[in-house]
Amino acid sequence: MASVASPVIFKEFCPLYYLLNAIPTKIQKGFRSIVVYLTALDTNGDYIAVGSSIGMLYLYCRHLNQMKKYNFEGRCESITSVKLLSCFDDLVAVGTASGRVAVFQLVSSLPGRNKQLRRFDVAGIHKSSITALAWSPNGMKLFSGDDKGKIVYSALDLDQGICNSSLVLEEPSSIVQLDYNQKVLLVSTLQRTLLFYTEEKSVNQVGTQPRK
User: Fold this and answer.
1) What PANTHER family is this protein classified in (predicted)?
2) With contact defined as beta carbons under 8 Å apart, do 195 and 189 qualify?
3) Is it the case that residue 141 has pLDDT exceeding 60?
4) CA-CA distance, 150 to 172, in Å (whole number)?
5) CB neighbours (10 Å) of residue 142?
6) Architecture of domain 17-22+36-172 in CATH?
7) Which residues contact 12 (CB under 8 A, 6 or more apart)?
């Protein structure tokens, strides 16, 4: 007997005006008016995260229809990469044009979840623009790559409030994509794609010819 096909749901795609209207197009800094550009984006079932050229992260909660703002202390610099993760706690990693990386542990109203916003900083290993971020499914590992080819591994202990970071790989060209699963980190650069086995610290290149 043939199985019954699941119904097809049609969806209409339209601009997210409710989101865009909550982000200013300009800000005033002293006597100057600065245009705000949207520079990075990530989404999941709970949040839409938007990075900006003024160093502000705009985080829209889909369930509460609320927009919250997070920023780095110190100088204002463009956010170049954001990565959300929903595990036991909601986390968002943010990278900037100068190589700063921070993790925000978000507040949750659910019982037993985090009740205070916390931030973890990846100590200054990166010196150039962050181009890719990847989480482990449990939120205990974060990998960050930059446009000089450096990949940094950060081990997070959310209970103790500790973040330890180290350089694990250095490629001769910019990192363009990272993905992590089952102790294997997929790395794509401008020149090649490789698998980095984090336990053995070994590299297996995908394909033999470099990218043109």
Assistant:
1) RUBY-EYE2-LIKE PROTEIN, TECTONIN BETA-PROPELLER REPEAT-CONTAINING PROTEIN 2
2) no
3) yes
4) 9
5) 26
6) 7 Propeller (2.130)
7) none
Q: Which of 79-83, 113-117, 181-185, 188-192 has the lowest mean pLDDT?
A: 113-117
* Residue linked to tokens 């705000």: 36
- Number of residues written out for the chain: 212
pLDDT at res. 50: 97
Residue 184's contacts (CB-CB under 8 Å, 6 or more residues apart) are 195, 196, 197, 198
pTM score, whole prediction = 0.87
Q: How much is the average pLDDT of 67-90?
A: 88
Q: Which has the closest alpha carbon to 79: 110, 49, 106?
A: 49
List the domain boundaries for the chain: 17-22+36-172
Integer Cα distance of 95 and 72 in angstroms: 10
Alpha-carbon distance of 157 to 142, in angstroms, equals 11
Token pair, residue 192, equals: 């090649």
Q: How far is CA 44 from CA 7, 41, 82, in A?
A: 23, 11, 12
Output the six-digit token pair for 159.
């209970």
Query: Can you give the chain as a three-state secondary structure string?
Result: CCCCCCCCCCCCCCCCHHHHCCCCCEEEECCEEEECCEEEEEECCCEEEEEECCCEEEEEECCCCEEEEEECCCCCCCEEEEEEEECCCEEEEEEECCCCEEEEECCCCCCCCCCCCEEEEECCCCCCCEEEEEECCCCCEEEEEECCCEEEEEEEECCCCEEEEEEEEECCCCEEEEEEECCEEEEEECCCEEEEECCCCEEEEECCCCCC
